[in-house]
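Dear colleagues,

As part of the handover before I leave the project, I'm documenting each prediction I ran so the next person doesn't have to rerun anything. This entry is a single chain, and its sequence is reproduced below.
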Amino acid sequence: MQHKLILFLLFSPALFVSILTWERVKLDENVSISFPSKPEKTIFEGKQVWIAAVDSTSQCMAMITDLKKLGIDANTLTERLKRKETYQTIKSGMLRGSPGAIALSESITTFKGKPAYILKLDLKGEKEDFSIAYILTVYVNVKMYTFTLMEKYDNPHDDDKNKFWNSLKLE
């Protein structure tokens, strides 16, 4: 019993520090998520983007796309999300944004009660580049929230991806 207590005391500070290093960021009035480090916020093609490093082999990214600016209302989005073609269009757009990438897997699902789409891409990057992307898109009202974890080949970050995605809070 004493050995277990000593092991717990040795490892709990590391676990505690690991938990504390993740930083919760409110993306807008309805959505927040935790990043592995303080994210850098920027605007890309009119969309808010947050990027944070997990370590030198992986990074997390969040982006908001306001579909209302594209002329889509809540009813139209709800109907479109019922059709597989919508997700194929989303996948095609993501592949166009990453020339040479190929989809390794995809899933039309729900996440925390909201319509969602999960896509895993092989970015065909060089050894030193981010080569694999795990993309979760979640649809809330008329916004598409995209949460991505990118990693280098042979450096899986499944625990970090799950922690990132599962930290998502919808208010």
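The chain is about 30% helix and 40% strand. The two ends are 43 Å apart (CA to CA).

All the best with the project,
I.
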